[in-house]
TrEMBL record:
Pathway: Amino-sugar metabolism; N-acetylneuraminate degradation; D-fructose 6-phosphate from N-acetylneuraminate: step 5/5. It comes from Alkalicoccus saliphilus. The active site is at 67 (proton acceptor), 135 (for ring-opening step), 137 (proton acceptor), 142 (for ring-opening step). GO terms for cellular component: cytoplasm. SUPFAM superfamilies: NagB/RpiA/CoA transferase-like. Keywords: Carbohydrate metabolism, Hydrolase. Catalyzes the reversible isomerization-deamination of glucosamine 6-phosphate (GlcN6P) to form fructose 6-phosphate (Fru6P) and ammonium ion. PROSITE patterns: GLC_GALNAC_ISOMERASE (PS01161). Its EC number is 3.5.99.6. GO terms for biological process: carbohydrate metabolic process; glucosamine catabolic process; N-acetylglucosamine catabolic process; N-acetylneuraminate catabolic process. This is Glucosamine-6-phosphate deaminase. NCBIfam families: nagB.
Length: 241
């Protein structure tokens, strides 16, 4: 595991954007696994700027998202689809057939999980971007999730709904369930880049670096992957040596 301590959020975003840019440069038909949330916004902006000022084409790139809320229509401003459309699909000039995200409104959610997992297997993810929750969740895999779980329906912990309430009118409006790639799905990616910013993430980053693998801290599953780069700012990295 490589650990890069960035000086601040901006530096973390720049480093992560450059890694993804290099991957696209090396292979224009690369498959990116992507995340939503507050942490990757700076990285997506930086990568959008790099792409805007470069001859590099994005028409062969494919993106696969980690998760989606259940019960929000894609047009809802808080759906992860809407987030991706604003932060990634539009600025990177991606067409619908390049963008994959679980369908949180599927009539049969179990089938949707199987379909999404089969797609991950069919295409393969070259590099997966991850954020991390304060409690160590990756994707929406909360503490206690099995490390071999595949794409699944999960119930969000009250603390996760509270953390994400900043995007909604109130905590009650945050969906209670989501479809998420499982930890087993995430570990299939050839390379993983995890970004974390701010003091609230310091304990989770500490767990990744210093704890044994434990389902109490889903992030520790990444210890079993051979190609992980962790990019954290000083605040998120303050507990690691
Ligand atoms: C998002 C996701 C989550 C977030 C995590 C951190 O697709 O799967 O694991 O990465 O909740 O969220 P932020 O970045 O908002 O602190």
């Amino acid at each position: 595991m490589k650990i890069n301590i960035a000086s601040d959020y901006h530096d973390m975003s720049r480093q992560a954007a450059e890694r993804f840019y290099e991957k696209l440069q090396a292979d224009p038909s690369v498959h990116f696994g992507l995340a939503t949330g507050g942490t990757p916004i700076g990285m997506y902006r930086h990568l959008s700027e790099l792409l805007a000022s470069s001859p590099l084409k994005t028409d062969a790139l494919k993106t696969f998202n980690l998760d989606e809320y259940i019960g929000l229509p894609p047009s809802d401003p808080n759906s992860f689809y809407s987030f991706m459309k604003e932060q990634v699909y539009k600025p990177w000039n991606l067409q619908a057939d390049q963008c994959f995200i679980p369908d949180g409104n599927a009539a049969d959610l179990e089938k949707e999980c199987e379909r999404y997992e089969a797609m991950i297997d069919q295409y393969g993810i070259d590099v997966q971007l991850l954020g991390v929750g304060k409690n160590g969740h990756i994707g929406f895999n909360e503490p206690g999730t099995r490390f071999d779980a595949l794409t699944q329906v999960v119930e969000l912990k009250p603390s996760t709904r509270k953390a994400n309430a900043r995007f909604f009118p109130s905590t009650d409006d945050v969906p209670t369930h989501a479809v998420t790639m499982g930890i087993g799905s995430i570990l299939k990616a050839k390379e993983i880049v995890l970004i974390a910013s701010g003091e609230a993430k310091a304990e989770a980053v500490y767990a990744l670096v210093h704890r044994e693998q434990t389902e109490d801290w889903p992030i520790t599953a990444l210890k079993q992957h051979r190609n992980v780069t962790v990019i954290v700012d000083e605040a998120a990295g303050r507990l690691i040596d």
